[in-house]
Design a protein that fits this description.
The complex is a heterotrimer of chains A (about 250), B (about 260) and C (about 300).
Chain A lengths: L1 H22 L14 H8 L1 H34 L3 H12 L2 H19 L5 H24 L4 H9 L4 H30 L2 H6 L7 H11 L3 H26 L1
Helix pairs in contact in A: 1-11, 2-11, 3-6, 3-8, 3-10, 4-6, 6-8, 7-8, 8-11
Chain B lengths: L1 H26 L3 E2 L5 E2 L5 H5 L3 H34 L3 H13 L2 H12 L4 H5 L10 H25 L3 H9 L4 H29 L3 H6 L7 H9 L5 H24 L6
Antiparallel strand pairs in B: 1-2
Helix pairs in contact in B: 1-12, 3-7, 3-9, 4-7, 7-9, 8-9, 9-12, 11-12
Chain C lengths: L2 E11 L4 E11 L3 E5 L6 H9 L6 E6 L2 E2 L10 E4 L11 H6 L8 H6 L15 H13 L5 E5 L7 H18 L2 E6 L2 H7 L2 E6 L2 E6 L1 H6 L4 H6 L4 E3 L2 E3 L5 E3 L3 E10 L4 E7 L4 E6 L10 E5 L9
Parallel strand pairs in C: 3-8, 3-9, 6-7, 7-8
Antiparallel strand pairs in C: 1-2, 1-4, 4-5, 9-10, 11-12, 13-17, 14-15, 14-17, 15-16
Classes of the chains: A mainly alpha (about 250), B mainly alpha (about 260), C alpha+beta (about 300).
Chain lengths: ~250, ~260, ~300
């Protein structure tokens, strides 16, 4: 049985490991020729890649901050007083196929641009990312809230704190690891998104996934191996840290 | 005061979920305009068009590919879930299985392209010329690779809660380990298996990237159809109708499962 | 030898401790045999080794003269009634009882445990007592050489426990199967058993009939474990053997409780130790009073 589990885990991990291996391949063909970092240098020197990476980071950071704030407050509000409609809406936003979320947001933006005189750009992407990340934050924070002892807040109130004060001084510290974990999760989801972003981004707001997608479609591109390895490694570390925080 | 906590989320949901869905709903009954715009008259044509065999094939393909992928996920995932549930290092194995899923979906698909394409690693390594990419099989492989963790988690959750003494009782009463598996473990794991099936099937029918990258132009699924209508084909009303049908199917399945009391999230 | 089950120098060592140490037992055919001891004494581990869920570190287990310690549970002709009953929740009473012998008629066994008419119920629809009977029926259908019972009464509420105790004894006598019964409740063991093996820290301290164990304990542990025991100047005296008289050991009454058929007195000796006496109602005393305790010397237990 253990052998089976090992094989399955290999199946899950090997493709990415192969990419990592070939990212240091000196040849640009799929034959191993020697160790080289040239593709990393190329990737880090490519303007399009760097710009799109910067865009992605900006979008992810801003969207994560907003989504984490909204999501944490919402989880807390739902914990104090359940709301079937809001819970259902969040759940549905989580399970709706990405393509449907994407086109619906595109439709929303195009329709609203008739009155708002705006165009697709970074701001629409950020809003879209906030929209689909909030549900993830709510799920993570809610899970932590379920193990929170309500009487702690009641004790705070008894000792003279206001409702918001109790939340801020007692509950929030307890939630801190979960909030951090949720933020990392939202960040990961935002950085990687292609489907929704490609629909609502403007011409001058390319994100990293969009560039990766274009490169992947075009054909063999060893630079992509280097980019991929860096991204996967970075995100992998983030996810591990997030899991550690969640487990507390 | 209490509602203030939920207010921003409410606002967000209204603006980015309810309103857009309403807009899509309205569009689905309108008509494609001359320059790809949207005009009246209101019509049911977009929906009836979906019954056309041309699109029927797309729906059928999506359902069958999703079904096959789900079955593979269940078959491959169950033994894995069972192993982890009985293991002494549960968290280690769980993390190992879940980790790839939370890195980049896009890049994971690219990794398979790298392996499977005609000039890819497998063909180069074994000096073969197998066309492994740009077909249904590649899409199924990609889906299983992508959603296997989705299948493992709910089955693991149910198996982990299984009372060990039940298996001891079965052995005590003369059941071999194999019989114990089929007479006790699997029947009691059914809720988890059902949840895994739905949690895998729903994302699979709505998939876009997997079929786009691994399926090439031959494998068009519902997701690709929708994307196409909103970009190249510029027939938003028709795309809207297709999206609503897709969403309806997804929500319908989940609702049915919740009705039967499955704990899905 | 009329022993149906034999354990020869059986040991079970774990990395941290020795659960069972060099244990030898012979269980007679048709007996109600109990393993009695505090939690952690190794009685459950012993039972599990007989059932096949644990493998002995050393020693042999023989059933009807043949070795079974190397066989998996499903190949041994012993069956277990688990502490939590382990009924299959996805099967009905009928499904559960039939599990080991699918083709066999189960009506007879259901009658024996008074469960006729409940065949199509699910475990969660049954009361605690009924569930226990299903577990019994399920094992008895298999016609085991020995029936192993792991504290089967501990999950029941105290009122029910007494009722079920009597029923269990009745059942064993009727069916005639050898019972190997594990419990930490000495009252239970005394009431039900033909023979008791008292265990402590992985070792058997004494084997005997209930009367032998209670009245002629061989070790200090057995004396204290079965019933209450007072230790006065190195001698062990049961509370019911103490009498209030005009001379004897001096003590001051701490508490006196009228319990119906007798009075329970807690008194403190000059040495500071406390003793408990169980005396006739007419021998009551008041707290603070000084009394003299005496006893018959042949009731003393010395080790």
């Amino acid at each position: 049985m253990k052998a089976y589990a090992a094989i399955m885990c290999c199946f899950l991990h090997v493709p990415l490991l192969i990419l990592a291996l070939f990212s240091v391949n000196s040849s640009k063909f799929t034959v191993w020729e020697g160790f080289s970092l040239r593709w990393y240098r190329a990737a880090l020197g490519d303007r399009e890649l760097l710009e799109s990476a910067a865009n992605s980071l900006i979008i992810a950071v801003v969207a994560t901050l907003i989504a984490t704030a909204i999501g944490t407050l919402a989880a807390y509000g739902l914990w104090k007083r359940a709301s079937n409609v809001l819970s259902s809406a969040l759940y549905m936003s989580l399970v709706t196929p990405e393509i449907v979320t994407g086109v619906s947001l595109l439709a929303l933006f195009q329709w609203s641009f008739r009155f708002l005189h705006l165009r697709l750009g970074m701001h629409t992407v950020i809003l879209a990312h906030v929209a689909f990340s909030v549900a993830y934050v709510v799920v993570v924070v809610m899970a932590r809230l379920r193990s929170f002892d309500k009487s702690l807040e009641e004790a705070a109130l008894d000792l003279g704190a206001t409702e918001f004060g109790a939340f801020y001084r007692v509950t929030l510290p307890y939630l801190a690891p979960a909030i951090a974990a949720a933020a990392m999760l939202a960040f990961t989801v935002s950085i990687d998104d292609y489907v929704i972003t490609s629909l609502v981004a403007g011409v001058d707001s390319q994100t990293l996934p969009m560039v990766i997608y274009a490169l992947a479609r075009r054909g063999v591109n060893p630079m992509l191996n280097a980019v991929s390895t860096m991204v996967v490694f970075g995100l992998g570390v983030m996810v591990l840290v997030s899991e550690r925080l969640r487990a507390k | 005061m209490k509602n203030a906590f939920k207010a921003p989320a409410w606002l967000l949901m209204v603006a980015t979920f309810f309103v857009p869905m309403a807009i899509i709903g309205v569009y689905s009954f309108l008509t494609r305009g001359g320059y790809g715009g949207i005009e009246r008259p209101f019509t049911m044509e977009n929906y009836t068009r979906l019954f056309d065999p041309l699109y029927g094939v797309i729906f059928a393909r999506s359902v069958s590919i999703a079904a096959v992928a789900t079955v593979f996920c269940l078959l491959l995932g169950f033994p894995l879930a069972l192993f982890i549930a009985r293991s002494a290092h549960k968290n280690f194995w769980l993390t190992l299985v879940i980790l790839p899923f939370w890195t980049s979906f896009l890049i994971r698909l690219y990794a398979w392209m790298f392996l499977l394409r005609d000039t890819g690693l497998i063909n180069t390594l074994f000096h073969t010329n197998l066309p492994m990419l740009y077909n249904n099989g590649a899409v199924i492989l990609g889906l299983v690779y992508g959603y296997l963790p989705f299948a493992v988690l709910p089955m693991y959750a149910t198996l982990e809660r299984l009372d060990n003494t039940l298996l001891e009782a079965a052995a005590d009463l003369g059941a071999t380990p194999l019989r114990g598996l089929f007479s006790v473990t699997i029947p009691l794991a059914m809720p988890g298996i059902r949840a895994a099936a739905i949690l895998t099937f729903v994302p699979c029918i709505g998939t876009y990237l997997t079929s786009d990258l691994l399926g090439g132009s031959k494998t068009i699924l519902i997701g690709n159809l929708v994307q196409n209508q909103f970009t190249t084909a510029r027939d938003w009303p028709f795309g809207a109708a297709a999206s609503l049908v897709l969403m309806g199917v997804a929500l319908g399945l989940l609702f049915m499962a919740k009705r039967r009391g499955e704990e899905l999230l | 030898m009329n022993a149906i089950l034999e354990l020869r120098a059986v040991s079970k060592h774990f990395p941290t401790h020795r659960a069972v140490d060099n244990l030898s037992l012979e269980i007679p055919r048709g007996a109600f045999f109990s393993l009695l001891g505090p939690s952690g004494c190794g009685k459950t581990t012993t039972l599990r080794m007989v059932a096949g869920f644990e493998t002995p570190t050393s020693g042999e287990i023989l059933l009807n003269g043949a070795r079974i310690d190397h066989l998996p549970p499903y190949k041994r002709n012993v069956n277990t009634v688990f502490q939590n009953y382990a009924l299959f929740p996805h099967l009905t009473v009928q499904g559960n009882v039939e599990f080991g012998k699918p083709k066999k008629s189960i009506q007879h066994v259901l009658e024996q445990v008074h469960l006729t008419g409940k065949e199509s119920r699910r475990p969660h629809e049954l009361s605690g007592g009924e569930r226990q009977r299903v577990a019994l029926a399920r094992s008895l259908v298999m016609e085991p050489d020995v029936l192993l019972l792991d504290e089967p009464l501990s999950a029941l509420d105290p009122l029910l426990r007494k009722e079920v105790r009597a029923e269990l004894k009745e059942l064993q006598r009727r069916v005639g199967v050898t019972f190997l019964f594990v419990t930490h409740d000495q009252e239970e063991a005394l009431e039900l058993s033909d023979q008791i093996a008292v265990m402590n820290r992985g070792v058997v301290e004494q084997i005997g009939t209930p009367q032998e164990i209670y009245q002629q304990p061989k070790t200090k542990f057995v004396a204290s474990f079965l019933g209450a025991m007072n230790w006065i100047d190195g001698a062990g005296i049961r509370p019911e053997c103490l009498r209030i008289s005009s001379e004897g050991v001096r003590a001051v009454v701490v508490n006196s409780a009228f319990l119906g058929p007798f009075v329970h007195i807690l008194a403190q000796l000059e040495s500071g130790e406390q003793v408990r006496a169980q005396v006739a109602p007419d021998q009551a005393a008041t707290p603070g009073e000084t009394i003299f305790l005496s006893w018959n010397q042949r009731d003393e237990k010395r080790f």
